[in-house]
Write a structure and sequence with these properties.
The protein is α+β, with helices and mostly antiparallel strands and 199 residues long. Helix content is 48%, strand content 17%. Strands 1, 2, 3, 4 and 5 form a five-stranded antiparallel β-sheet that branches. 29% of the residues are buried.
Length: 199
C-alpha cells in the first residue's frame, strides 16, 4: 500500500495543457472530488473545507470573470499574454473552487478559546490537505489538474454569481481535464538540504 501511494504521489503533477474530454462521466468526477474532500482530515474534525465545482459553461464563466478583473489592473500592452494564459485555463473541463467556512473557524475559536489563534492557521492546513486530496484522486483517475490563486480578486464576483455563502472564504481554484501534454521534468533539491534525521 505505501508503494501504491508513493507511485500516485509521483503521478500527480501540475498539468497546464488540459482539454475538455474527461475519461469519466462528469457525475463520477464530481463524486470523486466530493469523496476526496470528505476524507481529508481537519483539526478537531471541523470539516471547514467547502467547494464549488464548475463544469462546462460555468467553468468558462469563472475564467471570464477572472479575465474581466485582470483587465482592470493589467496594463493594456501586457494584457494579451495574460489573456492567452487564461485561455489555457478555460480550455480545461472544469474547476474546483476551494473555500474555508469562516463561521466554522470563529465557532471553534469561541468554543476553544485557548486555541483561538491557531484555528485560522489550522483552517488553512485543512484547505491545503483538501486540495492535495482532490489532486491525488483526480490523478488516480487519469485526470490532469493545476492549482491557481486569483483570490481575493474574484471573490465578490464568485459569491454573487453562484450564491456562495458570505462565510465561505475562497482559498484556491483547481482546473481539471483531459491531459493534452504531460508535465515536464521536475527537479528536486538535495535531501540533506531539506531533511534532518535524528536517531
Amino acid at each position: 500500500m505505501p508503494e501504491n501511494y508513493l507511485a500516485l504521489a509521483k503521478q500527480r503533477r501540475t498539468i497546464y495543457a488540459l482539454g475538455k474530454d474527461l475519461p469519466l462521466p462528469e457525475e463520477e468526477v464530481v463524486q470523486t472530488i466530493q469523496d476526496a474532500i470528505k476524507q481529508a482530515p481537519s483539526a478537531f474534525n471541523s470539516q471547514s473545507s467547502r467547494a464549488l465545482i464548475l463544469l462546462g459553461n460555468e467553468h468558462n464563466k469563472f475564467w471570464e470573470l477572472v479575465r474581466e478583473q485582470l483587465r482592470k489592473i493589467v496594463p493594456a500592452e501586457s494584457f494579451h499574454a495574460t489573456s492567452d494564459k487564461l485561455d489555457g485555463f478555460a480550455a480545461a473541463a472544469g474547476s474546483v473552487l476551494f473555500f474555508e467556512d469562516q463561521d466554522v473557524v470563529t465557532g471553534l475559536q469561541e468554543q476553544f478559546a485557548a486555541y483561538a489563534d491557531n484555528f485560522p492557521i489550522w483552517s488553512e492546513h485543512s484547505s491545503g490537505i483538501a486540495q492535495y486530496a482532490v489532486w491525488l484522486a483526480l490523478a488516480e483517475k487519469g485526470i490532469g489538474a493545476n492549482l491557481q490563486h486569483y483570490n481575493p480578486l474574484v471573490d465578490e464576483d464568485v459569491q454573487r454569481t453562484w450564491n456562495v455563502p458570505a462565510s465561505w472564504k475562497l482559498r484556491a481554484h483547481m482546473n481539471f481535464g483531459s491531459i493534452i501534454a504531460p508535465a515536464g521534468d521536475k527537479a528536486y533539491m538535495d535531501d540533506d538540504k531539506r531533511f534532518i534525521v535524528a536517531k
